[in-house]
Amino acid sequence: MRREPDLGSLRRHLPAGGSLPGHRLRFGSGAEGIERLEASLVGEAFSPHRHDTYAIGMTLKGVQTFRYRGELRHCLPGEWHILHPDETHDGAAGTDEGFGYRIIYIDPFLVQEALGGRPLPFVADPVIGHRDMPPSLAACLVDIDEPLGDVERLEVALLVADALERHSSAPARKRAPLALEPLSRVRDLIADDPAVRHTVEEFEEVSGLDRWTIARRFRTAFGTSPTRFRTMRQLDRARRMLANGVPLCDAASEAGFADQSHMTRMFKRTYGLTPARWLAALTGAHSPPVTSRTAPVT
C-alpha cells in the first residue's frame, strides 16, 4: 500500500459541486464485497437509513453531521466515521458550504474472513481521529478509480478488520470463531436469486441448523437478518438496472418487489434518497458495482 496521502490530495478528487444544492455521488472501482464512493452534499440531507455493510469514510471538506445511536455526531475534515451494519443514521451539512467525503463499504462476510470467523467488532463511538486510523486505509481513498485486484481486496479487508478490532467497544478477550459454513449456505441461497422468497424450511434444509439458531447466528455472523440481507440484494439488483436506464416499475418487478412503491420505500430506508433523487445524484463514468454479495450508500 502507498504512504499516507495528505488531505489536500484527497480533496482534489472530490466531485465538483460548487454551491448548487443537492447530492452528488460517484462510484469508484470496487471488488467483491467492497464498494468505494465519493460524495458531496449542499443544502439537503440524507433521510434516516441503514445498510448491511460497514461504512468507513473520511470527511474531506465542510462539517458532516449525523445522528447515530441517539446522539448527534460531528465529523470534521480529516476525521473518519465508522458505521456498523444495520445501524440507522442520517447525514447533513453542519454549515452552509455543505460537505464532501469518500467512503468504503465493506461486506461483513469479508470482514469475517479477515478475522478468521470471530464475531464482528462493534465500534460504539463512530468518529475516529485522523491519526487513529491506518495510513494505508486512507491511501485506498486517494484514487478510487484504481482497480482492486485479488491481493488488494485482501489487503483492504485486513486493514478494515484491524481498524475495527482496534476501536471495538467489546472487551479485549479472545473470542471463539463462529461456524460459518452452514450460515454461508443460507447466505448464498438468498444471494443467488434475491427475487425468490425462500421459506425457513429451505434455510434449515440447506444449513442443517434449526430456525432459531439460524436467526440468532446469522446476525452475529453477518451484521443483519436474513430478511434484511435479501432486501439489500434486491436493491443491489434494482440499482444496477436503474443506473442502466431500466424504468422504475420494471426494475421493481425484476428485483422481486411487490410493486414500484414497495421498492421506493425500501430504497429510501436504505440509502436516504428516493430512486429518482439517487439517479439524479449519480455522476461520473462508474455506475454502482453490484456483486452477488454486497450492498450500500452513504
The CATH homology group name of the largest domain: Jelly Rolls
The CATH class designation of the largest domain is Mainly Beta
Distance between the termini: 25 Å
* CATH topology grouping of the largest domain: Jelly Rolls
Keywords: DNA-binding, Transcription, Transcription regulation
Domain HTH araC/xylS-type: 184-281
Protein name: AraC family transcriptional regulator
Pfam family, one: HTH_18
Structural write-up:
This is AraC family transcriptional regulator. By secondary structure, the protein is α+β, with helices and mostly antiparallel strands. It is built from 11 helices and 10 strands. The chain has 2 domains: about 5-165, Jelly Rolls, CATH 2.60.120.10; about 180-280, Arc Repressor Mutant, subunit A, CATH 1.10.10. It has a 6-stranded antiparallel sheet. It has a 4-stranded antiparallel sheet with strand order 3-8-5-6. α5 (about 180-190) packs across α6 and α5 (about 180-190) crosses α7 (about 210-220). It is globular and about 55 Å long.
Describe this protein with a few key phrases.
298 residues, Arc Repressor Mutant, subunit A, 2 domains, 6-stranded antiparallel β-sheet, 4-stranded antiparallel β-sheet, 10 strands, globular, AraC family transcriptional regulator, AraC-bd, transcription, AraC_XylS_family_regulators
